[in-house]
Amino acid sequence: xxxxxxxxxxxxxxxxxxxxxxxxxxxxxxxxxxxxxxxxxxxxxxxxxxxxxxxxxxxxxxxxxxxxxxxxxxxxxxxxxxxxxxxxxxxxxxxxxxxxxxxxxxxxxxxxxxxxxxxxxxxxxxxxxxxxxxxxxxxxxxxxxxxxxxxxxxxxxxxxxxxxxxxxxxxxxxxxxxxxxxxxxxxxxxxxxxxxxxxxxxxxxxxxxxxxxxxxxxxxxxxxxxxxxxxxxxxxxxxxxxxxxxxxxxxxxxxxxxxxxxxxxxxxxxxxxxxxxxxxxxxxxxxxxxxxxxxxxxxxxxxxxxxxxxxxxxxxxxxxxxxxxxxxxxxxxxxxxxxxxxxxxxxxxxxxxxxxxxxxxxxxxxxxxxxxxxxxxxxxxxxxxxxxxxxxxxxxxxxxxxxxxxxxxxxxxxxxxxxxxxxxxxxxxxxxxxxxxxxxxxxxxxxxxxxxxxxxxxxxxxxxxxxxxxxxxxxxxxxxxxxxxxxxxxxxxxxxxxxxxx
Length: 502
Fold this sequence. Notes:
By secondary structure, this protein is of the alpha/beta class. It has one domain: Rossmann fold (3-Layer(aba) Sandwich), CATH 3.40.50.1820. It is 25% helix and 13% strand. The chain has 13 helices and ten strands. Strands 1-2-4-3-5-6-7-8-9-10 form a ten-stranded mixed beta sheet, sandwiched between helices. α6 packs across α8. Residues 1-23 and 469-473 have low confidence and may be disordered.
């Protein structure tokens, strides 16, 4: 059921929506063909000869480095779909120069999960910036979703003044498939076990917040209650594992955000509410409830139990601000054959609002589940500007709720994504509005200046069943013109990531 907003003070820039019965809208197959074609837009970037040459070179380098890692460290076991970082597993190869060209600083890290598996990751920051900065941990999606696919977000967040950890959950990328000893099968296979995306997020937070005075030690395993700290200590002493976050001196331990994609979105939706150290969550396709046990038939299905400590599977109350982002198509991107339910994407965000927690659900027009993971392969369709829109709102959400930046409201309420010139240039109808015409996007937040902004349909559209006639024409009042949102010119994550560190 669509949320019925309460009465709001006159100071709020908001709109009251009370949805009643609505008439069905005829499905338009011509529009659908155009909309679905937008999943081919990202290929305009990576199917050029110059990009493909760079991708081939980087793929070979990644494959060689993966083979060397296994030779130098025979204890590791990460032979899986994306373990070698080849082709579609390489991520955006334009971002590999972050360290060498001085765009920022990055350190590879290895640490032991509670199951005894070795997890692989990177920590990102800039030399320029405050001495202490808030932190962000990013959790991957599953199967073909190694950490390189999320560097586009990590680097943009680092440029915005955060220290960021990307890591491969157990069974993904270059993290071990199996645990150790009696816990060898804890988290295996990751796609049906779920624990690498839930418990793994908690392990990653523990590592991220470790320092020289408090080196990282994994928690006892869930399956048997065994401590695999001896493995972490042994490997750290031998120079294999990383004893603690190498950028610990930069981290403000009191300010932490979580972002996650797909199965990782489910993981951070729970851990973000359950762990008191977390301030805010952004869930990329899509926001879930805060129950790790999942629902029968749901996707993702949650995680397996924790026999050694059942308290870690306790549903958490909704208290932390949480933003969901989604797209018109899922996985694999499949054309619509009928008119979608306009409320389907935002139901969980509405539940957060009903619990009195700031939330939103933003749906990318013509995008897919793969907009959130940067895969340079035409078999994995995504929109042209989806990644930029994702970075914009992710950064703005964390700026508001993790960094405490009073100017973040102007970016969250900016109208720039109603008319994006680069998107309009490739759209079949010249439409630069990035918000879905099928699904309602919403935003319900308290404002730094007082009052609330509550918009339950950011892009009203005749493609969907019509709202009541009392609903105002156009989008809700209170959006900020792009000239006043504080960002000069076009927002482009690549330009941001590859700008000088100064």
